[in-house]
Amino acid sequence: MTALAVLQVSGALRIDAVERMDTFFADLRMRLVKPVLDPRIVVVDIDEKSIAEVGHFPWNRKIVAQLVTQLTGHYGVAAAGFDIVFAEADNTSGYDVLEQLAQRELKDVGGFGARVAGLKEQLDYDGLLVKALEDQPVVLGYNVAEHQRKGKLPDPFFNTDTLNGRALPAITYNGYLANLDRLQDAAATGGIFTALPDPDGILRHTALLMRIGDGFYPTLSLATAAVALQARAITPLWETNVAELSARQRANGGLDTLLMFVGQKKAPMRIPVGENLSNLIEFRGAGGPNGGAFPYVSAADVLAGRVRKEVLADRIVLIGTTAPGLLDLRATPVNSAYPGVEVHANMIKSILDGRFKVRPDYADGIEALQVLVAGGVLALALGVLAPLPSMLLAAAMAGAVFGFNYWSYTEMDAVLKMAMTLVLIAAVFVLNLAWGYFFEVRRNRGLVSRFGEYVAPELVAQMAENPARYNMDGESRELTVMFVDVRGFTTISEGLTPKQLREYINLYLTAMSEDIRSAHQGTLDKYIGDAVMAFWGAPVHFSDHARRAVATALLMQASARRLNDDFIARGWPALKIGIGLNSGLMHVGDMGSNIRRAYTVMGDAVNLGSRLEGITKVYGVGIAVGEATRAAAPEFCYRELDLVRVKGKNEPVAIFEPLALDAEVDDATRAELASWHAALAAVRAQHWDEAETQLAALQALSPQRGLYQLYRDRIVHYRAHPPGDRWDGVTTYDTK
C-alpha cells in the first residue's frame, strides 16, 4: 500500500479520487488563513449605493471621466485599474442627434449649426474621458475572445521576436474585445481581466501574461502593478543550463520567472510563473467589503469627495463592482460569489510582496518522504498498540501532516499535496483494525462471557474497550445514587388493560433509562417494578458525579412531563415521578449469590437515597437530594425542604429540591426562594405568626406548591403541641 502511495505522489500513477481530495484540502487550507487588511490596494466599488446615487450602470463616460479625475487629481492614486471595458462609443449625451438636426431639419436656422459645433467639446463624453486619462497612471481592462477583434490592444510587454526562437507556452487567444482606440491611446496601458476557471467551475488560477497573435499581453493585475511601480520593462528570464531546469521551467520551455525593472532600481523584481504563465491565486478572506483583505470605498463617495485623502493617496486602486445585478461575481475556493475585481487585488498584493504560492521543485520528494515515514511508522506501531492508542497515533500523524502542510503554505509559500498521505494513514489504520478484529473479538467474547451474566450490557461495552482497566472486585468509592419511582402506580395499573400497562411502563422506563445512560453517562443498576435505580462514578470514574446526577434528575422530570402529555392525550392515567439523590461513600462491585450476581452499590448513603425518594411525595416535590449532593453540585439552585431524621439513621440531614442551573434562575424565582427560606427560618425559631404570614403570601403566589400548605399545617400542629425550647427543627420519619 505504501508503494502504491509513492507511485501516486511521484506522478507515475494518477488516481482521480485522490486528486479531487487534494483539491478539496487545498481549498480548505486557503479558507483557514485569516486575512490581514492591506491598505495599499483599495477597491473603488460601483456598489448598490453608487447606483442609487449616480444612476443605473453603465454610467456615461462623463461620469467615468469625473471618477478618473477625482482619483488621479484630487486623491493622487499611484495607479487605477479598470475592471471594466469601454468597447462602444458613448452617445448618451445626444450630440449625434443635435448634429443631424443641424445638418438636416434645422440647417436653415440661423446660428444653430454654430451653436451645436460649440457644444461638441462638452458633449463628447468619450473625449472628456480621453482628457481625464492623458498622462495619468490609469490601466484599462479588456477581454480576450475567439474570432472577434474589436477595439485597440495596448502595446504588448514583449512579442515572439523577443524570444529569439524560444517556445513560450501561454494561454493563447486569436481575438479580443478591447477599448476604443482613442481611450486606449490615452491610457497608460491595458490589462486582460478574463477569468478562466478550472474544469469544476471554480476559479483558482490566473495568468500573468496571455498571448494574442505574436504579442504577450499582461493581465490587469500585472499591468496595474507595473504602472504603480513605474516599471521600465518586464522581460522573461531564461535558464540556459538544460541540466538544471526545474519542473516549472521545463513546462514553460525554460522559463519560470519574469523580471520587472522598477524605477531606478538596478535589481529587478522577480515574479515566478507557473505552467502557461499562470499562478495560483492566493484568495485572502471571503471577499467583498466585509472580507477583511482589502479596503472598499463606494464610487459614489469618491465622486462626491467624501473619502478621506489618506485612504486613497498613493494607493493602487481597482475600479469594479460588487452589485449582484452586474454579474462580476466568481465562484472561488473561499466564496461562491467572490467579487471579480478582488481577484486582481490578490494578485497585485502577491506582486508587491514578492510572495506567490507555488509548487516547489522538491514537492514530489517531500510528499514521497511523508508517505514512507507515515506508512513505515504505522505499520510497525499499530501492530503492538491497543485500539485507543492506535487511533490516537493515527490521528496525531494525520494532524502532523496537515499541520506541516499548512505551515509550508503559510510560511514557506509552498503548495504541497497531502491527500495521498492521509489516505494511506487511514487505510493502514483500517487494515490494522480489521486484522486485529479477529483477535480482539475473541478476547472481547471472553470478557462478555465472563461478565455478561453479572454486569449490565452497557457496562460490558465500556469494559470491553480496555478490559485491563476494569474489574468486578468490590471497593469503596464516592458515588451518587438515584432512586426513581412512579407516584400512585397501583392506581395506574388498575386503570389500564395489561397491554396498555405494558406499553405505559415500557415507554416510561425507556425514557428514564435513556436520560440516565445517554445524557450524563450514568450506570443503570436495576429496575424494581416501576422503580429505577442508577448511580454515577462507577465503573467509570467521574469527579463530577453529583453534578451529572442532578442534571439527569432535572432532565428526567422534563421527560416525564412530556410523557404525561402524551399519556393524557391517549386517555391514560397521569404520570408523576419522585426522584431521590444522595452522594457519599458506597460499596460498589459484583455482589449477590452463587446463583445470581449483579454489579451494584450498597451502604448507608444508598439507603438514604432510597429514603429521600420516598419522602418526595410528603413535600410535594419531584426531586429531593441530600446535603452532600448539594455541596458537591453547587452550580445548581436549590430550595431547602427540611432537616430530617430518616428511619435507620440517628443523625439528621438537610434535604433540598434542585430547581435548575443557578445561572438560569430568574429574579422572580430567586425572590420567592428568599421569602421561603425566611419563612423556614421563622418556623425553626418557632415564630409561628411571622412564619404563617410569609407562608400565606407564598401560597397566594404559588398555590400549586404543596410545600407551603405542608408547613402551614405543621404550624397548626406546633401551636397545639409546642415542640419546646430544646426543639432542633428536625422532622423524624419512622417509616421507609
| Uncertain regions spanning at least 5 consecutive residues | 450-455
Shape: elongated
What structural class do helix, strand and pairing data support? Answer: alpha/beta
Biggest β-sheet, characterized? 9 strands, mixed
Number of DSSP helical runs: 25
Strand content: 15-25%
Overall pLDDT metric: 87
Round the Cα radius of gyration to an integer and report it: 41 Å
Number of strands: 28
Distance between the termini: 68 Å
Q: What is the helix fraction of residues, given as a range?
A: 40-55%
Keywords: Membrane, Transmembrane, Transmembrane helix
Transmembrane segments: 392-409, 415-439
Protein name: CHASE2 domain-containing protein
Domain Guanylate cyclase: 480-613
Can you tell me about this structure?
With 736 residues, the protein is α/β, with parallel strands linked by helices. Helices cover 45% and strands 20% of the residues. A hairpin with a 7-residue loop joins strand 26 and strand 27 (653-661). Helix 9 packs across helix 13 (340-353). Residues 450-455 have low confidence and may be disordered.
